[in-house]
Write a structure and sequence with these properties.
The chain has 177 residues and is α/β, with parallel strands linked by helices. Helix content is 30%, strand content 33%. It has a five-stranded parallel sheet, with helices on both faces. It has a two-stranded antiparallel ribbon with strand order 1-2. The chain has a two-stranded antiparallel ribbon with strand order 5-6. Helix 2 crosses helix 3. The longest helix is centred in the first third of the chain and has 17 residues. Bound molecules: 1-O-pyrophosphono-5-O-phosphono-alpha-D-ribofuranose (PRP) and adenine. Pathway: Purine metabolism; AMP biosynthesis via salvage pathway; AMP from adenine: step 1/1.
């Protein structure tokens, strides 16, 4: 079964009109989870895309980022919702498909010039990924690439990020459905 068929859609969650693409049905299937990690890892190994660290977005980006850090042999840096990191942080506000939010990263998480693969489960408006990229860049890091399981191109995030010059890799997408 392909990756996309393992993702469940729940209409009107968390708000009316949102088609929620739920990856829990993909992750609970060990074959599905392994396929996700193997395919993303292979993409980066085969294309020779270089990066030093993986940055994951809380919360669903941690599931993907932790596993990819292991397979690709890179360190993992968390970007968290406010008030969760114990050290000195920088923050960035952003818009969601269903609200606004803020994320934080430790100011000493990255050395200047560190190349980063930013990962999250899903790309919708691109607000979360853009906020993550801004945090990385504020401390002198460089976004080499961004990886997602699901892209929702109708919402506009892919275009927004590509227009800013970011490179993306997405395993599957839901378009016009
Ligand atoms: O491209 P965007 O419009 O920014 O949307 C994508 C983000 O939305 C979801 O996270 P959410 O904020 O719901 O938090 P969670 O991971 O803690 O569930 C998803 O996991 C991405 O992080
Ligand atoms: N439609 C959607 N499904 C799942 N997660 C999301 N995050 C933002 N939009 C989403």
């Amino acid at each position: 079964m392909p990756i996309k068929s393992r993702i469940r859609t729940i209409p009107d969650y968390p708000k009316k009109g949102i088609m929620f693409r739920d990856i829990t049905t993909l992750l609970k299937d060990p074959v599905g989870f392994r396929l996700v990690i193997d395919q993303i890892s292979q993409h980066y190994l085969e294309h020779g895309i270089n990066f030093d660290m993986i940055v994951g977005m809380e919360a669903r980006g941690f599931i993907l980022g932790g596993a990819l850090s292991y397979t690709l042999g890179k360190g993992f840096i968390p970007i968290r919702k406010p008030g969760k990191l114990p050290g000195e942080v920088i923050d960035q506000e952003y818009q969601l498909e269903y609200g606004t939010d803020k994320v934080e990263m430790h100011t000493d998480a990255l050395e200047k010039g560190t190349r980063v693969l930013l990962v999250d489960d899903l790309l919708a408006t691109g607000g979360t990924a853009m906020a993550g990229a801004q945090l990385v860049e504020k401390v002198g890091g460089i976004i080499s690439d961004m990886a997602f399981i699901v892209n929702l191109p109708d919402i506009g995030g892919q275009k927004k990020l590509e227009d800013k010059g970011y490179k993306l890799f997405c395993l599957t997408e839901f378009e016009g459905e």
